[in-house]
Amino acid sequence: MNKITKLFNIKYPIIQGGMIWVSGHKLASAVSNAGGLGLIGAGSMYPEVLREHIQKCKKETSKPFGVNVPMLYPNIEEIMKIIVEEEVKIVFTSAGNPKTWTPFLKENGITVVHVVSSSIFALKAQDAGVDAIVVEGFEAGGHNGRDETTTLTLIPMVKEQIKIPIIAAGGIATGHGMLAVMVLGADGVQVGSRFAASIESSAHENFKKTILDIKEGGTQLTLKELAPVRLIKNKFYDDVQRLYENCPTKEELIALLGRARAKRGMFEGDLIEGELEIGQIAGVINEIKSAEEIVIEMITDFEMARNEIKKFDF
User: Fold this and answer.
1) In CATH, what number is assigned to the domain containing residue 154?
2) Of 266, 117, 285, 267, which is closest to residue 195 (Cα–Cα)?
3) Total number of domains in the chain
């Protein structure tokens, strides 16, 4: 039992990312039932929709699960109230100051994890009293750090300064990748893109199939002036790049982005005008599998990688 499995009372130190439009109760419960930690992604849910997903997740698994909450959420007070009322035991926070909600969550007996993209933010999260941190490199899908620090660089930098458990994220979809970041100092991993292309993912089938088609170089980090996001290169991405040629203002970028573009792409399946968020590791994802198959495959691959290390005898 390592620090992460002990903290969450789970079998494997694998956490499923709480992705918008992807991580509903079906995916979260399936990952938890497989021995990992499933997360419901609150970022794309109205408060009462979140309550419904929490209640359904309770019925679908007796294992621990959590909720991921971007703190820029407009209904954040109501979201946090629902989480307490529904007796959620684990909350991952992101996109905001951990000092804002960590004391409240801890007072209600909730284990708190915060997502960071730098050593500076990792220290601030530790000072705020969180129980663990997710350290996310810029290979990750969705919204990202501005500094473009890679996961393999970031983990050892943070490890030098942090005492609480570290969960690595960004560019991890295999057991080999899991072992690599744990050798560098991570206690567990958070996996997003691989679970986005799962049977239980709530993403549109068009989006899932597109993930399988991604090759090296098929994604790009952009829109740093708003919130850095890694996108699949489609027509919407091309429109963004053309706008950049004219040195756009922040307001012009916001106008192009519009409303609900991520929903349009990932949930409704518009591969042309939709915002399609996925990590660089999509280039190695070739098949849609069940969450259970993904967890088993990662653990099997992890053990294989651990045995392979023994051959490196200098």
Assistant:
1) 3.20.20.70
2) 285
3) 2
